[in-house]
Amino acid sequence: MTAYQEFSARLKLLISKNPDLITTTLSNIFTMRLIGNKTHGDLAEIAIAEFINQYMYDFKSVHVGKDLYRAKEHEEDIKIINEITKAEFPVSLKAYGDGPLQLSTDKTFQMFPRLEAIGMLIQKKEDIARIWADPAFAEFSTMNVLPLIYDEKKQRCNILVFNSERAKASVSRVAYEEKGSGRMHPAFRFYDADGNYICEVRYGSGTANALQRGLWTHTKNGLKYFDSVTNGWIDYSHNLILVKLFSHALLSTSKGHEAALAKLKEDIEEQKRHSKLR
């Protein structure tokens, strides 16, 4: 079990024992969509980092600043430290609708041309083995992606972790498919022995933008290859008081923020006392 797998297992256990904690947090995160369609994504990184620090006593989390993005070795939003083993690992947090999910941007544009070099239809065991042996796919099994998948119409969220090891072991065919189904560029799609979709590598040229390239999957079509940290969908609700709090906070001084922060900390401690954290 990798350090990230151990963390996600512990997170799943925490949520199963204390569903109210994650429900409150998710409700607040997705309330941010009332402020702006993309606001929730950035604030989710801060919220989940703090969730880990407040409720997962054996782990410490640090939110990685956006200013460091281009210098990052990994596609990370959060750095997590296991306080017991001292293992450190990056986590990329995604807040996506229930559908296509980007796992990696493939910044060096290597995945797609590597598959092209092997062939348009890859199904021999030795050729599939060549894919996993290629350095371009070295991080396939070490992607630490934590996706908050939401269904806005039904106001529910499912934290789904892509099981890359299960996916890797199940691939039996990789097929080049022309553009279509909303895609502007072709893709190599990975399938299992039963013809079930697993994931895909999108067009990898330097002329393609981040949404047209890299490793993608699909939370509906590839559900077999996901593990739910929340044990399925969790219903959330909008917290309109939070929106009002933000509007007033933007007009307040640091003195007012300090007083409000003290009250918020008291509320978190109250939640801890009523939870089953120990």
Explained architecture:
- The protein has one domain.
- The chain starts with a helix and ends in a 5-residue tail after the last helix.
- The chain is elongated.
- The protein has helices spanning 3-17, 19-31, 39-55, 111-118, 125-133, 164-170, 240-249, 254-273, and strands at 59-63, 78-82, 88-97, 100-104, 121-122, 145-151, 156-162, 173-177, 187-191, 197-202, 214-218, 226-228, 234-235.
- The longest helix has 20 residues, at 254-273.
- α1 (3-17) packs across α2 (19-31) and α2 runs antiparallel to α3.
- The model has no long low-confidence stretch (mean pLDDT 90).
- Strands 1, 2, 3, 6, 7, 12 and 13 form a seven-stranded mixed sheet that branches.
- The protein has 278 residues and is an alpha+beta fold.
Task: Give the arrangement of secondary structure elements.
Layout (H helix, E strand, L loop, with lengths): L2 H15 L1 H13 L7 H17 L3 E5 L14 E5 L5 E10 L2 E5 L6 H8 L2 E2 L2 H9 L11 E7 L4 E7 L1 H7 L2 E5 L9 E5 L5 E6 L11 E5 L7 E3 L5 E2 L4 H10 L4 H20 L5
Parallel strand pairs: 3-6
Antiparallel strand pairs: 1-2, 2-3, 4-11, 5-8, 6-7, 7-12, 7-13, 8-9, 9-10, 10-11
Determine Rg (CA atoms, Å): 20 Å
**Largest sheet: number of strands, sense, barrel closure:** 7 strands, mixed
How far the N terminus sits from the C terminus, by CA atoms, comes to 23 Å
- Give the domain tally: 1
SSE-based structural type: alpha+beta
Number of E-type strands: 13
